[in-house]
Structure formats: C-alpha cells, structure tokens
C-alpha cells in the first residue's frame, strides 16, 4: 500500500494532508522517518505520526503534486500555464515549478525530464521523469500508446452516446492551423475514443481516451465532427452559431494518468480533480438544462 494512503487510513486524514505530513518528515515507518508519499509499506509496518514535529523541508505550494517517488513526479497543471518554455523563454512554466519544488524539497540540484506536454489552456495530470532511464521508459510507453490517459471535456451539441474518430491529421490545413487531412493528402493517423457522461443544455460532458497522441488531437476531432470543445477559439468554426455558454478557455481537462511502475511493475495512477473554472461552466449548463421552459404567451 502507498504510504500516504496508509497514513490517511490510519489517522483519519485526507490524502492531501497525509501527503504533506509525509513530505514534512512527520511520519515514521518502523521507527525510521519516511518522506516519500508514494513509497510502499507492508501491512505489518508500524506507522507513527508526529504532527508537532518541525517540518524537515520547506516545500513551496505553487505546484500541486498528485504522486511522486524517486522515479517520477506527477503534478496537476493549471490552465494558462505552459508546460515548458517556448522561444520566448518564459520563466514561469510547469517544468520550472517542478524543478523549484524538487530543489526546496531535497535541498540539492534537481532533475526533472519532460515526458509529454499539455496545451497552455488544457489543465490536468502531467508526469515528469526524475532520471534519464525512467524518461526513456515512459517515452517508450507513450510511443506504444501503453499509457492510461483519460480526458474530460465539454463539447458543443449532442454527439452519439459513444464513438471513435480515426482520421489522419496534418500540421497545416491551408490556414496555418492543424486539421484533418483531405482525401489523398498524407497525414499522421490519429484515433480518439469517447463516451458521453452527461447531457447538458446545448452541450455534452464526455470522457475521452486516446489511442494516439497527436498535437491538438481531441480538439481537432471534435471540431471536425461538428462538436467543438466549448471555449476553443482556434478550431471552432467562425460561422458557427453562438455557444451554449461562455467559457474562459477550452473546457478540456486531463483527468487521469496511469502506467506500470518503472521498477516494480505495479500500477501507478493519479487523478486530477476538475478545476474551478470547469466546474463553474458545468454548473451553469446544468442549471440551464433544469430551468423550466417558458410556454407561449409567458
């Protein structure tokens, strides 16, 4: 069992509080201080909690850590933050925050390697490798599409209950934007599976899983099917009717990430809760759907 889960169950704490207690060095396992929340503990291990013990580390809170151990760091990326710097050399990125977190946690020069990325306005789970060998391991899993990934999105309209998009994508559809390849045009194969979770007012909440990992794949596939991701200002048709609700950004969230542990082979899974802006749009669409319709003459 993971140490943070064992601490949570043993002392009636939330998982987040348990993780912070472990990171702060306030948890002992069999008399030895343990500071890796993702470490495994046996059923017979003696776990003690010392809430009054001074924290061993000062960890900055600008990064929400979902899971970690000596091999990887899984974090919750907020919308609006780049995963890595662009040519503009932005200083505040998810990678920079991860390195800062590791530096303050361990007090030495940190290493974190980029395995994959999310768009600036997409939120959710991102994994960084902490060693080169784990980087190659995770990159190979992504290459073989052997990574468990689930996205949650709000899309316009009412798509069928479930479906599978399988089209080739191109980097320039003729207007300097990515898109679906035309007949006979070479492109890269992209496959997206989805199922509808909830019907909303003029929109649908969908769960999405990827069989491939092309740039903007989800956004392009749903837009080309006539159901653009709500708030997407790039791929939504210019002449499309008004959206069912205003959204501050594209309503796309990487909710779950899973893979076999690089050393033990055990299951590693992390889940990111839906962020506040996503929940706000969802609540407005739910309320709009439940609102009684006005009849003639009212």
Q: What are the SSEs and their pairings?
A:
Layout lengths: L2 H9 L3 H9 L3 E3 L2 E2 L13 E3 L14 E5 L3 E6 L16 H13 L6 E2 L8 E7 L2 H12 L4 E9 L5 E9 L8 E2 L7 E12 L3 E8 L6 H8 L27 E9 L6 E5 L4 H15 L8
Parallel strand pairs: 7-13
Antiparallel strand pairs: 1-2, 1-3, 4-5, 5-7, 6-7, 8-12, 8-13, 9-10, 9-11, 11-12, 13-14
Helix pairs in contact: 1-2
In words, what does this structure look like?
With 298 residues, this protein is α+β, with helices and mostly antiparallel strands. Among the domains are: 1-57, RNA-binding S4 domain (Structural Genomics Hypothetical 15.5 Kd Protein In mrcA-pckA Intergenic Region, Chain A); 148-254 and 281-289, Pseudouridine synthase (2-Layer Sandwich). The chain is built from six helices and 14 strands. It has helices spanning 3-11, 15-23, 94-106, 132-143, 217-224, 276-290, and strands at 27-29, 32-33, 47-49, 64-68, 72-77, 113-114, 123-129, 148-156, 162-170, 179-180, 188-199, 203-210, 252-260, 267-271. Strands 4, 5, 6, 7, 8, 9, 10, 11, 12, 13 and 14 form an eleven-stranded mixed sheet that branches. Helix 1 (3-11) packs across helix 2. The longest helix has 15 residues, at 276-290. Residues 57-61 have low confidence and may be disordered.
Provide a brief overview of the structure.
The chain is of the alpha+beta class.
């Amino acid at each position: 069992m993971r140490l943070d889960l064992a601490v949570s169950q043993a002392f009636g704490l939330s998982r987040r509080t348990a993780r912070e207690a472990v990171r702060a060095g306030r948890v002992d396992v069999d008399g030895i201080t343990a500071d890796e929340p993702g470490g495994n503990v046996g059923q017979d291990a003696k776990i003690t909690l010392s809430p009054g013990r001074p924290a061993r580390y000062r960890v900055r809170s600008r990064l929400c850590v979902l899971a970690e151990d000596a091999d990887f760091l899984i974090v919750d990326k907020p919308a609006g933050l780049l995963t890595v710097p662009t040519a503009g050399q932005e200083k505040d990125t998810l990678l920079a925050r991860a390195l800062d977190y590791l530096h303050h946690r361990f007090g030495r020069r940190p290493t974190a390697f980029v395995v994959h990325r999310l768009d600036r306005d997409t939120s959710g789970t991102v994994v960084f490798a902490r060693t080169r060998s784990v980087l190659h391991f995770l990159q190979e899993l992504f290459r073989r599409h052997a990574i468990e990934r689930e996205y949650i999105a709000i899309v316009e309209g009412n798509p069928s209950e479930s479906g599978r998009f399988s089209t080739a994508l191109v980097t320039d559809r003729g207007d300097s934007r990515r898109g679906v390849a035309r007949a006979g045009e070479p492109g890269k194969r992209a496959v997206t599976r989805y199922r509808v979770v909830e019907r909303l007012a003029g929109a649908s909440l969908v769960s999405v899983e990827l069989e491939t990992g092309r740039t903007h794949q989800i956004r392009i596939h749903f837009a080309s099917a006539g159901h653009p991701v709500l708030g997407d200002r790039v791929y939504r048709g210019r002449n499309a009717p008004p959206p069912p609700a205003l959204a501050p950004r594209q309503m796309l969230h990487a909710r779950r990430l899973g893979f076999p542990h690089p050393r033990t082979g055990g299951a590693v899974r992390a889940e990111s809760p839906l962020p506040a802006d996503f929940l706000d749009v969802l609540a407005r669409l739910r309320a709009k759907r439940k609102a009684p319709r006005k009849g003639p003459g009212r």
